[in-house]
Amino acid sequence: APGEAIAAPSGAFERDPQESSTTDEELGRAGSRGGTTPDYGEQRLPQALIIGVKKGGTRALLEAIRAHPDVRAVGTEPHFFDRNYEKGLEWYRNVMPKTLEGQITMEKTPSYFVTNEAPRRIHSMAKDTKLIVVVRNPVTRAISDYTQTLSKKPEIPTFEVLAFKNRTLGLIDASWSAIRIGIYALHLENWLQYFPLSQILFVSGERLITDPAGEMAKVQDFLGLRRMVTEKHFYFNKTKGFPCLKKPEDSSAPRCLGKSKGRTHPKIDPDVIHRLRKFYKPFNVMFYQMTGQDFQWEQEESDK
């Protein structure tokens, strides 16, 4: 289908309905409700977008940045630049929350990063749009992606079966979306034809867990915001294994992401993990060179 950069084999990888398939009605409500801000201001097209990646930590990032008083964001994923583009910019604007002068409008749809047409379409909306990509070790990202699908379709083949074209020869099936999404260098090339690197911020999904305040400081600087989301906003939840958000002035319990986040991953054959690491390594190195950032995914592996 147009706007779908990745062919998923045998229907194994449809997008997570809970995370993405949002009805027009829900979007309408999301836009008009506009969170806690009173119903005034106006609906504007977003100046910043979280464009990827699926299972990287985009929901956590969105929830954290929404704690900033100068940010208004759509809670649901509009999928405008991949699935709803023909509905036009006016439809898109109507999905947005109302903002006051000086506030930033944002949305997140992680599938944009792997959609061929998205960079051109976003560029034609506004060439100065700021883009945020949350990236995570592609091996753990692929397993997380598979785990999400497995929770909805317990009958799908094992990760090992889907990951290989030929297990004996160790040929990885790069057409499987769970693997293909993690070839970040490949997708980034497409974006760099339309946007300078200075307009793209790469957030580490790992550091969003280990040092959420540090990553959020970079995000706020990038968006030109005062640093108001700080360590006071985060509380580490030992059961979940990642930080939860709290409002510093509010003594109520911290808000954690739903039960669909932090699922236990199935046990994957160590040989398969080893082969996947080898497969991704050259692409990771290329990605580090393109972005000028070393995400240390290789180091992380050798520590284990």
TrEMBL record:
It is an enzyme of class 2 (transferase). Pfam families: Sulfotransfer_1. Gene3D superfamilies: P-loop containing nucleotide triphosphate hydrolases (3.40.50.300). It comes from the Eukaryota. Residues 46-281 form the Sulfotransferase domain. The active site is at K55 (for sulfotransferase activity). Keywords: Disulfide bond, Glycoprotein, Transferase. 3'-phosphoadenylyl sulfate binds at K55, G56, G57, T58, R59, R136, S144, K261, G262, R263, T264, H265. Residues 1-42 are annotated as: Disordered. Disulfide bonds join C244-C256. GO terms for molecular function: [heparan sulfate]-glucosamine 3-sulfotransferase activity. InterPro entries: NST/OST, P-loop_NTPase, Sulfotransferase_dom. Belongs to the sulfotransferase 1 family. This is Sulfotransferase. It comes from Pterocles burchelli.
